[in-house]
Design brief:
Structural class: alpha/beta
Radius of gyration: 18 Å
Order of helices and strands: EHEHEEHEEEEH
Distance between the termini: 25 Å
Strand order of the largest sheet: 2-5-1-6-7-8
Largest sheet: 6 strands, parallel
Length: 175
């Protein structure tokens, strides 16, 4: 079961850069990592004129593109799926899913707050599993990390990963 960890923040706060730096750090520790990116404005991965684009514009509701070492799925949806559904359906073979965006959904979230963009977090302290910032912020009960402290942030993500399985561990010993 993949554990989702949200990476949230205002536009241009450094969310993608943080994820880029965390992936190799977590992989070096043996974790299988995926990412899920929310794009509120819509996106296109097909290019006009390509075969997959032609299939989709002809009316195919699902198009899968397969090539050496990769697979892409394009599926029409009436309603955007929630991140829990996407994680269940597409990330079950992984350990961690770093979720960029989807700030309103219920999973642990780290917020990136960069002084060039704002002076305070978007989320309330109760909704934060951690804060990554270049500002001298103090939020009681919220772990705070510098923008370049990737090793410490990865340590924290490992802790969140283990906590996700803590209730299951209560029954590991049997009776």
């Amino acid at each position: 079961m993949a554990v989702p960890i949200g990476i949230v923040g205002r536009s241009n706060s450094g969310k993608t850069t943080l994820i880029e730096r965390l992936i190799p750090e977590l992989k070096a520790r043996g974790y299988r990592v995926g990412t899920l990116k929310h794009d509120a404005h819509g996106f296109e991965i097909d290019r006009p004129g390509k075969d997959s684009w032609r299939h989709r514009t002809a009316g195919a509701e699902t198009v899968v593109i397969s090539g050496p070492g990769q697979v892409a799925l394009i599926r029409q949806t009436a309603v955007p799926p929630d991140p829990q559904t996407l994680i269940r359906d597409y990330f079950g073979h992984l350990d961690l899913v770093l979720v960029e965006g989807f700030k309103r959904f219920d999973f642990p979230k780290l917020e990136v707050v960069r002084g060039a963009n704002t002076t305070e977090p978007m989320l309330a302290p109760a909704d934060l599993a951690g804060l990554v910032t270049d500002l001298p912020l103090d939020l009681p009960g919220v772990p705070i990390f510098g923008l370049e402290e990737f090793h410490r942030i990865a340590n924290h993500l490992e802790l969140l990963y283990r906590q996700a399985f803590a209730p299951l561990d209560l029954f590991a010993g049997g009776a």
